[in-house]
Amino acid sequence: MSIVKIKDKTFQTSISAAEIKQRVKDLAERINRDMAGKNPLFLSVLNGAFMFTADLLRAITIPCEVSFVKLASYEGVTSTGKVKEVIGLNVDISGRTVVILEDIVDTGHTMRQMLDSLQTRNPASIHVCTLFVKPDKLEEEVDIDYAAFSIPNDFIVGYGLDYDQQGRNLPEIYTLVEG
């Protein structure tokens, strides 16, 4: 088990790169089956979902498109509870099958706001695909169609997820142990 120090916090490996790769491949296979013939628009939420999006899309074999939005709700290790849209959607989603790609759903506030916003643009359907979900922390009712991992309410970094903008480049997931 590997230990990393990021700024003032200590983290240890909790999910290996190999396990992440396998779970992402499994998700892609399900999406390929479920979305066959639909030409989905994958809507990736930056910054955290960039690695997940890249790896997932490499395994998607059906015709599809990808676009990006950037939302922010974290400062340090805690959610601010306020979602601020930084870069908006510039693609017409009317009548489209949309698959939101998110790094982590914890309280569900960010996802709920995003779903509500996207619904006003008349998509045919919206599906949520997340790398991680924290079921014990959910405060909003959110239908998650695809989740690679269900995890406890721990603070994690790596594979796109950060602590104060650091640690996104780590290939594994690390859980906070000291801080």
Brief summary of the model shown:
With 179 residues, this protein is an alpha/beta fold. Helix content is 22%, strand content 39%.
Question: What would your notes on this structure say?
Answer:
This protein is an alpha/beta fold and 179 residues long. The protein contains 3 helices and 10 strands. It has helices spanning 17-34, 50-59, 109-119, and strands spanning 3-6, 9-15, 41-46, 65-75, 78-87, 97-105, 125-133, 146-150, 156-157, 173-178. The strands form 2 sheets. Strands 5-4-3-6-7-8 form a 6-stranded mixed β-sheet, with helices on both faces. Strands 1-2-10-9 form a 4-stranded antiparallel β-sheet. A hairpin with a 2-residue loop joins strand 1 and strand 2 (9-15). Helix 1 packs across helix 2. The longest helix is centred in the N-terminal third of the chain and has 18 residues, at 17-34. It is globular.
Number of helices: 3
Shape: globular
Provide the β-strand percentage band: 35-45%
Give the terminus-to-terminus CA distance.
18 Å
Strand order of the largest sheet: 5-4-3-6-7-8
Tell me about the largest β-sheet.
6 strands, mixed
Number of strand elements: 10
Task: Give the SSE string.
Answer: EEHEHEEEHEEEE
Category from helices, strands and their pairing: alpha/beta
Runs with pLDDT <50, length 5+? Answer: none
Radius of gyration: 16 Å
Average pLDDT, all residues: 91
Indicate the percent of residues in helices. Answer: 10-25%
